[in-house]
Write a structure and sequence with these properties.
By secondary structure, the protein is mainly beta. Helices cover 10% and strands 29% of the residues. The protein starts with 13 loop residues before the first helix and ends in a 30-residue tail after the last strand.
C-alpha cells in the first residue's frame, strides 16, 4: 500500500486558470466577445451575471437595446439588479438615477437638470452585441474590440433550416444553464470522449440511449485552425458505422454532433442533422455555459428557452444591498 500520509498537493496553475483583470488568461479572455446570457432572458427585468470574475447587470430597455453595467450605482452603491427597466434605460431603485445602455446618467429626479449636466455621471459598463439568440459582452480595453465571429450554424438570418433553442443539457434533471466551474474544466471535458464511454455508458448505463452508446470506439484527435477536435468511430451491431466529431473553437465555443436530439415536439427528423453549440464565458469559480442547440432541418425558425427571468420581490429583501458600501466619486470619463 502507498500511504497517503505526508503527500503533497500540487499547487494550482493560476497562470492558466485565473481570469481576473491583469492575469495572463484574464487578459486573453478579455480580447474576445464573451456570451453572458440568452436574448430571451433579457425581458422586463435586469439580471446580475458573473463573468471573468466580474459582476455585471445586464438589462434590455423598452426600446430593445441591451446594456451591461457595473452593478453598484455611481450615486450610493445600490445594486442595479433591483432597478426598474424603462423606455430609455435602467433606473436605480434608491434615488432614481436613470442610466442608458451606454452607462450615461440621463435623469436625476432629486436634482436639477443643470446639476445633472454639470456632473456628467457615467456608470462603468461594457459594450454588448446580440447574435444567434445570445447576448455577448466585450470586457477588454475600449477600442480593441475584434470582429465578431458570425458562426453560420447559429446565424438567425440563415433561413428556415436553422432552429435555435436554449435548453438544459439534462432536461428537468439539470441544475440549469450555468455550471459552477472553471473555464478549463469545460474544455478538458469536451475533448475527452473516453468519459462518454466509461461514465455515460459503462458506469451509468447508456445515458444517451442511442448509437453513441453501442459498440467499441476508435478515437483520435486533430488540431484545427480554430482549436482542436476529436473523431469517434463506432462499428454498430446493425452493421452501420457511426462517426462523431466534437470541436473546440477557441476561446469559448464547442461544436457537438447530437444524434439524439429530442424529437417529440418537432416530429421525425433525418438522423445526423442536429448539432449542439455550447458557448461558455470563463470565470475562476464558474463558467457561464450557455447551451445553444441548433437543429439543421426543415421548419420555421424560432428561439425558445426554458429559463425564465424571476425577480426576487421579497418584502424583507434588502433591495438597497450594497448601499453606502462603495462611496466613490462619480466617474466623469471622456466618451
Amino acid at each position: 500500500m502507498k500511504s497517503a500520509y505526508g503527500r503533497q498537493t500540487p499547487p494550482p496553475d493560476y497562470e492558466l486558470t485565473c481570469v481576473e483583470q491583469g492575469s495572463p488568461m484574464g487578459e486573453l479572455m478579455r480580447r474576445y466577445w464573451q456570451p453572458v446570457c440568452t436574448s430571451e432572458e433579457r425581458r422586463d427585468l435586469p439580471r446580475k451575471e458573473k463573468l471573468l470574475c466580474e459582476e455585471i447587470v445586464v438589462f434590455r430597455d423598452k426600446q430593445g437595446r441591451v446594456g451591461a453595467l457595473d452593478p453598484h450605482c455611481a450615486h450610493r452603491g445600490t445594486s442595479l439588479e433591483w432597478g426598474q427597466v424603462e423606455e430609455a434605460g435602467l433606473r436605480c431603485c434608491y434615488h432614481g438615477w436613470l442610466y442608458d445602455t451606454r452607462g450615461q446618467c440621463i435623469d436625476m429626479p432629486c436634482e436639477s437638470e443643470e446639476f445633472r449636466q454639470r456632473m456628467d455621471v457615467w456608470q462603468p459598463g461594457y459594450p454588448t452585441l446580440e447574435y444567434g439568440g445570445l447576448v455577448f459582452v466585450y470586457m477588454g480595453p475600449p477600442g480593441t474590440e475584434p470582429l465578431f465571429p458570425r458562426y453560420d450554424i447559429i446565424d438567425p438570418d440563415r433561413g428556415d433550416d436553422v432552429v435555435l433553442r436554449g435548453m438544459r443539457l439534462w432536461g428537468e434533471y439539470a441544475v440549469g444553464m450555468v455550471r459552477d466551474c472553471n473555464w478549463l474544466q469545460h474544455y478538458e471535458n469536451i475533448v475527452d470522449p473516453w468519459h462518454l464511454i466509461m461514465l455515460h455508458q459503462a458506469i451509468s448505463g447508456d445515458q444517451f440511449e442511442g448509437a453513441l452508446m453501442q459498440g467499441a470506439p476508435q478515437i483520435a484527435w486533430e488540431r484545427t485552425a480554430l482549436g482542436v477536435r476529436y473523431n469517434l468511430i463506432k462499428d454498430l451491431p446493425t452493421g452501420n458505422r457511426m462517426v462523431r466529431h466534437a470541436e473546440c473553437i477557441a476561446p469559448n465555443a464547442f461544436r457537438l454532433h447530437h444524434p439524439e436530439y429530442p424529437r417529440a415536439r418537432h416530429g421525425p427528423e433525418a438522423p445526423g442533422a442536429r448539432y449542439r453549440i455550447v458557448l461558455g464565458g470563463a470565470d475562476r469559480q464558474r463558467a457561464c455555459a450557455r447551451h445553444q442547440y441548433c437543429r439543421l432541418a426543415a421548419g420555421k425558425r424560432r428561439a425558445e428557452t426554458r429559463l425564465e427571468s424571476g425577480h426576487r420581490h421579497d418584502p424583507g429583501h434588502p433591495s438597497r444591498l450594497g448601499a453606502g458600501t462603495r462611496l466613490r466619486r462619480a466617474p466623469a470619463q471622456a466618451r
